């Protein structure tokens, strides 16, 4: 019997599970999913959970029920590629024939003193829930800082504005403008939206230190009631440890450079997916799912003793959609730039379709 161990029940891991369980060509296999939560989480919507506009029950999807799938609710503490074992916090050790690492990403603090210990996060369901609890206890007229003007920071700031109209919300970004990875039409539209909705933008910021409720920008202290960190991500620490141990090549974000078949180089029984795998594309749920589709194809071939295809289907990403509260948004679909209500409606539709097809 073929035994696949999947670490992480995120978008990539869930896609592989769905594809393999639906494959009528393969038999005699077992999947062990190691995921500390009892459900798949819609990570792309954690900003809304943190802001308090969505309850966490709306961001949970049950894993498939199938005799071939076992869910181990535990935390991975060590991965030993050389002897094909995975160690868990409970003390259990799992052995595998094939391994899929989909452990996702963590906040990257860029060496800023105090940032890791003294800021809030939206990188997990638990941390986003904690962020919401703290934000809702901020007094009337309190000051909230969001560090990082990328997609996560923008969505968090706009959603928080919709949730708490009384707050003084400040978005700090080190660049000349927010959303620097998007075309000017989009970041200018979002900038105007923030101005109209009384969100203060602080560009060319340089966060040098964080203390409890104190932010140092260019060395000057600013007192705040809450500080949310969205200024970059990096692969899970376990993957960073593997990278150091096996001297793996990474991209500028620290993601592991894989073979064309999504293997960790030197370990053809270990695949890597999602935010931990290098790609020409930015990390996203779409990318993780596209990689998951390819990995499911490869496992199906391998388990039937068939050769891998010379080339894999090209991963086609549809674009990026961002929200500005519940009524406005922005997006880039190929070369087409979208602003206003249409991209927000499209994003809601994409989310509904994902939940529908995932059994929610």
Describe this structure in words.
It is a single chain. By secondary structure, the protein is α/β, with parallel strands linked by helices. It folds into 2 domains: 2-36 and 73-106 and 234-317, FAD/NAD(P)-binding domain, CATH 3.50.50; 109-231, FAD/NAD(P)-binding domain. The chain has helices at 11-22, 46-51, 115-118, 125-136, 151-163, 184-196, 237-246, 285-303, 341-357; strands spanning 2-7, 29-34, 40-41, 60-61, 69-72, 76-80, 85-88, 93-95, 98-101, 105-107, 143-147, 168-172, 199-202, 207-211, 214-217, 220-223, 226-229, 233-235, 263-264, 267-272, 320-324, 328-333, 336-340. The mean pLDDT is 96.
Descriptive tags:
single chain; alpha/beta; FAD/NAD(P)-binding domain; 27% strand; NAD(P)H dehydrogenase (quinone) activity; FAD; NADH-Q_oxidoreductase
Record the SSE blueprint.
Layout: E1 2-7, H1 11-22, E2 29-34, E3 40-41, H2 46-51, E4 60-61, E5 69-72, E6 76-80, E7 85-88, E8 93-95, E9 98-101, E10 105-107, H3 115-118, H4 125-136, E11 143-147, H5 151-163, E12 168-172, H6 184-196, E13 199-202, E14 207-211, E15 214-217, E16 220-223, E17 226-229, E18 233-235, H7 237-246, E19 263-264, E20 267-272, H8 285-303, E21 320-324, E22 328-333, E23 336-340, H9 341-357
Parallel strand pairs: 1-2, 1-9, 2-5, 9-20, 11-12, 11-17, 12-13
Antiparallel strand pairs: 3-4, 6-7, 7-8, 10-18, 14-15, 15-16, 19-20, 21-22, 22-23
Domain FAD/NAD(P)-binding: 3-292
Protein name: FAD-dependent oxidoreductase
Cofactor: FAD
């Amino acid at each position: 019997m073929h035994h696949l161990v999947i670490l992480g029940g995120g978008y990539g891991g869930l896609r592989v599970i769905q594809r393999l369980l639906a494959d009528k060509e393969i038999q005699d296999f077992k999947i062990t999913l190691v995921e500390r939560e009892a459900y798949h989480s819609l990570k792309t919507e954690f900003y809304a959970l943190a802001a308090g506009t969505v309850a966490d029950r709306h961001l949970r999807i049950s894993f498939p029920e199938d005799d071939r799938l076992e869910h181990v609710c535990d935390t991975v503490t060590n991965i030993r590629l050389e002897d094909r074992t995975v160690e868990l916090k409970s003390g259990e050790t799992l052995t595998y024939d094939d391994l899929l690492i989909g452990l996702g990403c963590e906040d990257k603090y860029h060496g800023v003193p105090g940032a890791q210990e003294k800021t809030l996060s939206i990188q997990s369901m638990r941390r986003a829930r904690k962020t919401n609890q703290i934000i809702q206890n901020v007094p009337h007229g309190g000051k909230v800082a969001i560090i990082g003007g990328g997609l996560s920071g923008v969505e968090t700031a706009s959603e928080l504005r919709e949730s708490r109209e009384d707050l003084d919300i400040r978005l700090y970004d080190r660049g000349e403008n927010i959303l620097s990875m998007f075309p000017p039409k989009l970041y200018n539209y979002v900038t105007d939206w923030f101005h109209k909705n009384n969100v203060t933008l602080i560009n060319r910021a340089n966060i040098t230190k964080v203390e409890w409720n104190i932010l140092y920008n260019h060395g000057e202290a600013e007192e705040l009631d809450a500080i949310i960190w969205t200024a970059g991500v990096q692969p899970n620490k376990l993957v960073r440890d593997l990278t150091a141990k096996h001297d793996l090549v990474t991209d500028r974000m620290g993601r592991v450079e894989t073979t064309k078949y999504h293997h960790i180089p030197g370990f053809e029984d270990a695949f890597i997916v999602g935010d931990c795998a290098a790609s020409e594309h930015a990390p996203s749920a779409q990318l993780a799912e596209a990689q998951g589709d390819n990995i499911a194809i490869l496992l199906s071939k391998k388990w039937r003793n068939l050769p891998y295809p010379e080339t894999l289907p090209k991963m086609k990403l549809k674009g990026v959609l961002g929200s500005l509260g519940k009524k406005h948004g922005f997006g880039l679909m190929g070369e087409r730039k979208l602003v206003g209500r249409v991209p927000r409606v499209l994003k809601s539709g994409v989310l509904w379709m994902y939940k529908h097809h995932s059994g929610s």
